[in-house]
Amino acid sequence: MIKKEVKKSLIKAIGKSKVFDEKEYLITYSYDATRVEYLPDLIVFPENERDIERILKIAYKYKIPVTPRGAGVGYSGGALPYNRGIVMVFTKMNRILNIDTKNFIAEVEPGVVTYELQNECEKKGLFYPPDPASLKTSTIGGNVSENSGGPRCFKYGVTLNYVLELECFLVNGDKIKVGSNVIKDVAGYNLKSLIVGSEGTLAVISKIILRLITLPELRVLFRVDFKSLSAGAEFINKVINSKIYPSVLEFMDRSSILASSKYMEVSFDNDINASIVIEVDGNEIEVKERKNRFIEVLKDYEILNYEIAETEEEQEELWKIRRNISPAISGLSPKKINEDIVVPVSKIPETVEFINKLAKEFNLLIILFGHFGDGNIHTNLMVDPDNPEEMRKSEIVLNEIFRYVISKKGSITGEHGVGISKKSFMKYQFSNREIELFKQVKRVFDPENLLNPGKIF
Ligand SMILES: Cc1cc2nc3c(=O)[nH]c(=O)nc-3n(C[C@H](O)[C@H](O)[C@H](O)COP(=O)(O)OP(=O)(O)OC[C@H]3O[C@@H](n4cnc5c(N)ncnc54)[C@H](O)[C@@H]3O)c2cc1C
Question: Could you tell me the pTM of the whole model?
Answer without folding.
Answer: 0.95
